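WARN  no MSA supplied for this record, continuing single-sequence
INFO  ligand: adenosine-5'-triphosphate
INFO  echoing inputs
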Amino acid sequence: MKDLIRLLRLFKPYQGWMLLGMLLAFVTLMANVLLMAVSGWFITAMAMAGVAGVSMNYFTPAGLIRFAAIARTAGRYGERLVTHEATFRILSELRVWFYQKLEPLAPARLEAYRSGDLLSRIRADIDKLDNVYLRLLVPVVVAMLATLVFVLVLWFYDPLLALVEFTLLMVAGVMVPWLMNRWGASTGQQMVTTAAQMRSALVNDLQGMGELLVYGAADAHAAHIRQLSQDLAAQQQKMSGLQGIAQGALGLCANLAMWGMLLVAIPLVSEGKLLPPQLAMLALFALASFEAVMPLPLAFQTLGETLAAARRIFSLADMPPAVAEPEQPLPVPETLHFAFRDVDFRYQPEGTDVLHNISLDLPPAHKLAIVGATGSGKSTLASLLLRFREPVSGEILLDGQPLQQYHGEVLRQHIAVVSQQTHLFNTTLRENLLLARPDAGQEALDAACQLALIHEFISSQPQGYDTWAGETGVRLSGGQAKRIAIARAVLKNAAVLILDEPTEGLDPETAQQVMANLVVHATAQRQSLLLITHRLHGLEQMDSIHVMDAGCIIESGTHAQLLAAKGHYQQLSVSGKLLVEKIKT
Ligand SMILES: Nc1ncnc2c1ncn2[C@@H]1O[C@H](COP(=O)(O)OP(=O)(O)OP(=O)(O)O)[C@@H](O)[C@H]1O
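INFO  complex generated
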């Protein structure tokens, strides 16, 4: 119920459309009942007049029938138009609202969710919420109003008629939907979960199809998806069965109501309290009135499904972001001086420290390298600096002020990153590059790509910069994609450039040349450089180097100082050189 009220609050901006849709649905229903009732009266009255050989005014009822028929058709058209317009507006509003809720959760909070699951929530779960207005709110409001009108009309003729109608409407409109809700709720919830699992598994398997084929695991994964699909079909079948029962029950109630009218009204006709044509009118009136409650069983049967979808959406939307933004953020200074002071960090509250007592400085125009074995915490440092996460203890300062006092998004406008997992979008190379600086001209694109040694490749393509990158850059080699990412980061012209293993996937000569170009560029632009790597070429050009091991800085100095110290760095350096030499031979 709480979820339902919360949803209705989100629908508030569209209440005008929603009310208009309800009004049209009500008018359509009334027109239909009027049409049936007047037709019953008219046919009987005409037949009786014919038998008696008397004339009667048939213009008024014929006009009324025409009016009701036109009102029913026009009303139905208008109702469909307005209710669907309202639904689509609501859904698009909900999607934007949900996306805005998701954005601050990325990347830290969303790591636990599979991309297929997120996609499922954004698309299928939000689509399910159209049930709330279209299949729940409109039918319930219309049914309540209509029941009131029907009972009052019948009361006017005889209270017993009203009682019969009311009782059967309650059975059809309250008891049957309540039973459907009881029997259908858990299956509905299972359906949402199974459908989401199936979508997640499908996205996951499609993304990893290459690996599944190489390791011969495709059949096992296909069997899992088949099983989910069979489960879903069984759940859908159960829901359809329930729907059939409900429709049958409603049909029975409608017919019982018609018979009930006849049973009560025939004595009234005999007593002269009702005219014979009114008998046919009341019977058809009662039969048609059940249209008001027809959608209710389905509405309540799918309520469990709808609420399960709402809960899945709210559970994500309510998650607090990993990093809270300040209410009154400080303006980001022109020159950026980052300082880590005794920073400890762990990913899970109950986990072990990934960073331990880290203190370092990244002043403006400084070139700092962080080196260390894989898993030693280098990339985690970058993620803290980007304000994607916050230290558990200690602090990170920007120009002497705690980093929490700056808005993360504004801060990141001053930082460019080449991350380890480069993501290219399924669009042209130009669009992928312009992501960093949408107003960049061709000259700027050429210069950045020349620096990253990718310009020649792009120019050799028939479509040049308009070459399609493919999904996640599949139409490029790993090294080409990496260099596009480097060009993109250079193009941004940010005050700080973070390079996380920027030359991974490049051959040693290209790697050295790209690194040299980046250093020259950073020096010329007075850009700070934070280079994260476990490959040791080009480090002599760095102003300072920190060596990390198991989350701690174990050595610091310049390349020459660290070599002279003959410690960890020197050992890494020797093994690094050996590696390069082996590759060359
Ligand atoms: N999102 C995460 N959730 C939980 N633990 C994580 C997460 N990311 C990294 N870790 C853990 O934190 C530690 C440091 O990881 P980090 O990526 O910072 O290392 P790294 O030095 O950059 O390694 P590499 O050179 O392989 O990139 C590792 O033990 C890793 O398993």
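The first helix runs from residue 2 to 10.
INFO  checksum written, moving to next record
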